[in-house]
Amino acid sequence: MEPSSKLHRAHVLILPFPAQGHINPMLQFSKRLVSKGLKATLALTVHLAGSMQPDPSSSIDLETISDGHDLGGFMGAESIEAYQTDFRDVGSRTLAELIHKLDRLGRPLDAVIYDGFLPWVLDVAKQCDKLGVVFFTQTCAVNNIYYHVQRGLLPLPLPLSEGSVRVPGLPPLKPWEAPSYVYKLGLYPAFYDMLINQSTNVDDADFVLFDTFYELEKEAVDWMSSNLWPLKTVGPTLPSLYLDKRLPNDTAYGVNLFTPTTTSTVSAWLRRHPPRSVVYVSFGSMADLDPSQFAELAHGLALAGHPFIWIVRSTEQHKLPRDLMDSIPSEEALILPWCNQLEVLESDAIGCFVTHCGLNSVVEAICLGVPMVAMPQWTDQPTNAKFVEDVWRVGVRARADEAGVVWREEVERCVREVVGGGERGREVTESARRWMEVAKAAMAEGGSSDRNIDEFVEKLVSRASTE
């Protein structure tokens, strides 16, 4: 029998960083590659593979690599440093074993597509004579900053108050608008090393891909493409149902670290509210808000006077101010441990998204035309928030005090500004709708990202057939 790999134009292994916000975009990109005639195999760590399964209709195989000494995955490791060391050392060995196993089984790989957080994967791919494709899951702007820091072109520490940070292809940034690991030098050194070192060997990659779309970051893309690498933007990486609707059955990401509340429950609650009246609040899968911030946020939402859905993970719900929450009628507040965020944002009832500004959440809001209140917490989120307010003009930023707390009055002000029907609210709502159309056009047939994916596939197939 002819090996199954011969039925496809090329075979790629997809290796994401083991976190929800990294797996989702790489899995969605894999679905696009499958639709172009490639075979895709998704490699997850043993811990995650046991609890997360891609949709069978996606035609994506699932394989596992070790994440170290059964550390229980990224979130359960004894320390970030320990996890990263074991993942690199044990993962390098088991990844090489997986590549050789697939070769022996008649399913040889042509390329390894890896998250930029895992630069060691490129070394393994090259040692196994496979093409290496880096996939960056943060914006071009953020990675441009990290590149300049890694190469010594942006001196640290940054000024703590006055002055601005200037990086080619980006607007001037206040120091606190840079990624938190750059502004607050010494904060979580293991994360700092991981993020800054993404570009250590990227010059050796065969292809450089970014989970963004050209129109969203035109200036940064143009500068980086001309001066660093011939990168390609291949986003937004949402399920096709919410973009171009060209991939049958691609209606959801297909993986979840947490079990979402039943869709019908959320939909029924939303249907009881008029258009653009509900505030949706979520800080993603990793944010760890201080109890005092929970209290200020809760009081601010109550003061704003709009019904709200608030995603509070089960492990965080003890931080809620119970007296206040119990006093709010159920029709005015819905607290959930997790939900299908895309289905919520798509609802006509949603008028505002209070978000930590993780890139996936920001792009989802843009693609569904929902204006934002930005409450960034760490890593790339302050830079994303800067672009949300000042560059894309699809939201407003809540200002924190010197201790990093956003007070209830500021929460109230921002929500009222976006949802209240005033001039600023109309401006960001209209801007969000315009960006929604641009985002969808990028992934539609002939759009900027669609063309880039086609070009990437053709070049990969050509390179694979000659090596």
Automatic annotation (TrEMBL):
EC number of the protein: 2.4.1.-
A GO MF term: UDP-glucosyltransferase activity
Domain Glycosyltransferase N-terminal intervals: 12-41
BP terms from Gene Ontology: monocarboxylic acid metabolic process
Pfam families listed in its UniProt record: Glyco_transf_N (PF26168), UDPGT (PF00201)
Record-linked Gene3D superfamilies: Glycogen Phosphorylase B
Top enzyme class: transferase
UniProt entry keywords in alphabetical sequence: Glycosyltransferase, Transferase
InterPro entries given in the database record: Glyco_transf_N, UDP_glucos_trans, UDP_glycos_trans_CS
Record-stated family: Belongs to the UDP-glycosyltransferase family.
Protein name (database record): Glycosyltransferase
